[in-house]
Amino acid sequence: MPHPKVAVLMGSDSDLPVMEKAIETLKEFEIAPQVKILSAHRVPDKVAEFVKNARSSGFEVVIAGAGLAAHLAGAVAANTTLPVIGVPLKSGALAGVDALYATVQMPSGIPVATVAIDGAKNAAILAAQILSIKYPEIAKKLEEMRAKMRQEVERKSAEAEKKYN
Amino acid sequence: MPHPKVAVLMGSDSDLPVMEKAIETLKEFEIAPQVKILSAHRVPDKVAEFVKNARSSGFEVVIAGAGLAAHLAGAVAANTTLPVIGVPLKSGALAGVDALYATVQMPSGIPVATVAIDGAKNAAILAAQILSIKYPEIAKKLEEMRAKMRQEVERKSAEAEKKYN
Amino acid sequence: MPHPKVAVLMGSDSDLPVMEKAIETLKEFEIAPQVKILSAHRVPDKVAEFVKNARSSGFEVVIAGAGLAAHLAGAVAANTTLPVIGVPLKSGALAGVDALYATVQMPSGIPVATVAIDGAKNAAILAAQILSIKYPEIAKKLEEMRAKMRQEVERKSAEAEKKYN
Amino acid sequence: MPHPKVAVLMGSDSDLPVMEKAIETLKEFEIAPQVKILSAHRVPDKVAEFVKNARSSGFEVVIAGAGLAAHLAGAVAANTTLPVIGVPLKSGALAGVDALYATVQMPSGIPVATVAIDGAKNAAILAAQILSIKYPEIAKKLEEMRAKMRQEVERKSAEAEKKYN
Amino acid sequence: MPHPKVAVLMGSDSDLPVMEKAIETLKEFEIAPQVKILSAHRVPDKVAEFVKNARSSGFEVVIAGAGLAAHLAGAVAANTTLPVIGVPLKSGALAGVDALYATVQMPSGIPVATVAIDGAKNAAILAAQILSIKYPEIAKKLEEMRAKMRQEVERKSAEAEKKYN
Amino acid sequence: MPHPKVAVLMGSDSDLPVMEKAIETLKEFEIAPQVKILSAHRVPDKVAEFVKNARSSGFEVVIAGAGLAAHLAGAVAANTTLPVIGVPLKSGALAGVDALYATVQMPSGIPVATVAIDGAKNAAILAAQILSIKYPEIAKKLEEMRAKMRQEVERKSAEAEKKYN
Amino acid sequence: MPHPKVAVLMGSDSDLPVMEKAIETLKEFEIAPQVKILSAHRVPDKVAEFVKNARSSGFEVVIAGAGLAAHLAGAVAANTTLPVIGVPLKSGALAGVDALYATVQMPSGIPVATVAIDGAKNAAILAAQILSIKYPEIAKKLEEMRAKMRQEVERKSAEAEKKYN
Amino acid sequence: MPHPKVAVLMGSDSDLPVMEKAIETLKEFEIAPQVKILSAHRVPDKVAEFVKNARSSGFEVVIAGAGLAAHLAGAVAANTTLPVIGVPLKSGALAGVDALYATVQMPSGIPVATVAIDGAKNAAILAAQILSIKYPEIAKKLEEMRAKMRQEVERKSAEAEKKYN
């Protein structure tokens, strides 16, 4: 089985506790995450440089998480035609609604595939769903994950039914 | 060149004026859109039936646009492991912020790749970006579109510079 | 006295601490709650299957609690013509405003009777009020609950008046 | 067939253009609407008087529509144990978000079954769904309405598919 | 010196920790507070009864604090032509923005003088400012309070200047 | 009968179409309005000068309307201990929610009696209610206005009942 | 007198009708505006290139206006240590609140001096205020503008006083 | 090297823990901060007096931080043509969104350069960026700070890459 490459970028090392869930989930799919801290505001050239070469370096999806005026996913999307997944992060007084708007309200021409605030795990699953159109093994793993999820809900429902009904 | 299949679903025929932009843009990429009106609330079985067979019917991406308590993209995502792009539509008193939250704030396990409110064109471009990891022709077309976009901005800037500077 | 049946559904077992108030309150009215964990996104078929048979299985009201992009109540309402009460739950960065909008802003044709964010107890009382049009015993119990509520307010006011006036 | 009675209250005659949809929809279900303009702030005694006698006068559901600091549904709910459906109306600078919060965020003990902003038609359908637990004819009519709705969506989808696919 | 009477009403005894600041502040102005717990939803008749007699009982201002769908101040204002001061209280998932809108967005004809969320102290000062147009002693006390406030700010500024400059 | 003096201040002449309703309503109560355009930002000294002398010049209430970062009412309140009524005005992209927050969220010590967005008429009625504690004629006029309001609602309800029931 | 140089950048030519007010106002101060259309998402390299040379090219302030996920001002600020003024522009369903958050909520280290939504004129005045610390002529012009503003308010107040008092 | 003077004003001593970051950062740039507690509502005359003399006293920038209905920056801007930087502070139920709107939404003619909620450090950096157009030493220090920031991000990225890749 091939190990498709997904870049996992974030604006600050303080984003790691949330973004770690993306890294772990990618690994469960045997996707190779490449983690980098790349602030759109503090090291804009590094962002452009890394992202411009992303496709030719073999990356197939980029995940970018940022908080506040979360420009990272947009800055990434501006420099590549790979699919870019944006994770708005909760931080500061506006608790992530600023990051959500700054990530999702992209202008015509440069989309960012936005997931829920702090939705790092879902970003990884979405990356897997995107890769599944090319890698049948990942499609299979996704079906297995769904089946497990269903079983988990059913098991928990059975417990609750036993307790309350 | 192959013509990958993308489903373009929407909750109501009143969504067509906005969702048409997705259809047109897909065609520019020589992607074959399959349009369907499929309300998550009025014909839930039809949604489930269509979506469950989407991958085996050869679809590779699903775009779903809906307004208000916009459940369509989520209902689609619940029934397939294909990548699902959600387009929150502006309608009613809350002007799309309800649709944005109902589309993007998906629970862990079932992501929706959300674009801007009324961002139907970007949904199509995102679909193309996703397909580009498998179809090099689409990657090429995306680069061409970006180049054209850049030229357009530069042309307009030249005009404005001439007028105001 | 008959024991009318009310289904109490929720998207996740993490919703139980809030939804328990609905269960307890229903029991105070001698209404039989049937608790199930049924995620609209993780087990959509189970939701449809359970709800489609709800009326014929003797249920008269369905209560559905969910957080984030809270689709459960809408998915239930799409599959039955029984009255459906939605409880938006507080969770995540948007603290329930997402769940409120995703529950209440239903499109024309498929209403959800929405109560306050985390208003599980009120969902049960609303279920009792709905049942009271058919079961006079419940109407009586509701009057008793109101009388007790009034006495409680008066007792607390008397205490406060004594302390502050 | 019996004609169950539903009160349709609103705070001002300027609410009639929206609330008319509730009146018409109730009539389609052969439910007898009783329309009254009853402001919670301008004629509070009339509200209390009418509502206190509502159950004994044969009403089974009350629908109350109001805008701004929309207290009408809450004032109604405070005076009856009948199910009360609140319709937040769009008006003024906050475009209905004030009415939504003032209608749905009821304190423990006194629920209001809230529908979407300007959701007068859905309020009537919800009233029918509530009555359907007692009147099988209304349950039947609801199923017919749903079937018609489904056909309508399918017809429109067929048209769109013909045009775009 | 006369002791003008101000009613201090609140929807629940859980509001006392915040509303106590109004009580204390009124006492500093030698205004006699009359505290009552009077829920607009749980004891609507008590509210109407108390408020209708408020002017004839010698009250000159009414302060009403409530949270969530905060109807108390509006219900009071509907039943008296005395000036009514509304204090929106922070509680629940929306953290007071619901109470603010439900208190301030009153319809034409029935105003509520709204202060900040949890602004119980300011409600008392506003009551004093209202009474000051009739009672010169209170006008004098207000000037003294302002002078003290100014001195306090100057004292604290002097401390900070010493520490930081 | 005396003609109490109320100042009606606003930040810009573009506020006149809304603030005119306050002027007219005051005149109905035979209260003498003194209109001034006094921007807190453009002529701050004029605001301070006028307001500091307001009480000694015989004013008993000040009404201040402003939009956007609506500081006028706060700037007035900072310079007088008279009761100050703030009218947040709808203007610009945020449609008055900025003006509402900037008017109502005053810090401890300096209250502003805030009415609804664009609630100029209610500001005048609130001024009358404040004056009514000193001028019995105004209390009487307020009762008359309320009686007329009630009749108006009843008349309109009768019309609607005739048309729809 | 010297003519300091200020860059006036915007994301799209559709922003010109609003941003023109900045251009005109700068000219009133005899500041030379240099207009460019430079989208952070469509021509990111052009933005970086222009901005990196801005200080050495003699620019002293940069004004950047953008709507939606308004990254332009942030992208500019990331590439220069000149003062950057951000103008959030109203466009799309969220009416500028997205642009405001995306412009003002910058992370630590890279500030953007944000003005009101659509506040292009104020951006130019702020630029003049910044330049005034170096160019006494501009300080003088600012004082003149303020004096004229004051006279204008006074003239309009006199008119209103004549009409209404 | 000269030590340019920047005033650091705040509405209350409770704002010091946040505003201290501005003070410290200014000192790193060898800019002399002058700290004062100056409430727009409690000591409006002191604000006007201090600010009117600010330019002639040698100040070149004013930083003003305030929470709630944050008028301080606006009141400062109304009394000087120096550049004024506003820091909206998080406090109370609305968590700073009130302060943000009250600071940034200034009317035409009187801009405030607004930074992020609690963005005191960025206010100081912005002050330095403004001063850098006059003082080359500060421009140099800003470049050094940026270089350090870049190194810091790179160092942290290297650590994360080592740990996760």
Detailed description of the structure:
Eight copies of one chain form a homooctamer. Chain A has six helices and five strands. With 165 residues, chain A is α/β, with parallel strands linked by helices. Chain A has one domain (5-135): 3-Layer(aba) Sandwich (Rossmann fold), CATH 3.40.50.1970. In chain A, strands 2-1-3-4-5 form a five-stranded parallel sheet. The longest helix of chain A has 29 residues, at 136-164. Chains in contact: A-B, A-C, A-G, A-H, B-C, B-D, B-G, C-D, C-E, D-E, D-F, E-F, E-H, F-G, F-H, G-H. Chains F and H meet through helix 2, helix 3 and helix 4 of F and helix 2, helix 3 and helix 4 of H.
* CATH uppermost class of chain A: Alpha Beta
Low-pLDDT stretches of chain A are none
* Strand order in the largest sheet of chain A: 2-1-3-4-5
Mean pLDDT of chain A: 97
- In helices, the fraction of residues of chain A equals 40-55%
The figure for the number of domains of chain A is 1
CA-CA gap between termini of chain A: 47 Å
What does the oligomeric state look like here?
A: homooctamer
CATH topology of chain A: Rossmann fold
CATH architecture of chain A: 3-Layer(aba) Sandwich
Largest interface: A-B, 41 and 41 residues
Principal-axes geometry of chain A comes out as globular
Supply Rg of chain A: 17 Å
* Number of helical regions of chain A: 6
* Elements of chain A, N to C (H/E): EHEHEHEHEHH
Number of E strands of chain A: 5
Largest sheet of chain A: 5 strands, parallel
